[in-house]
Amino acid sequence: MFLEILVDIVAEYRSAIFYNSPEQRDIAQRVTEEVQKKHFDAKGEKIVTDIVEAGPWWDAEDYHQEYLTKNPDGYQCPTHRLHW
Question: What is the separation of C-alpha 27 from the centre of its chain, rounded to a whole number of angstroms?
Answer without folding.
Answer: 16
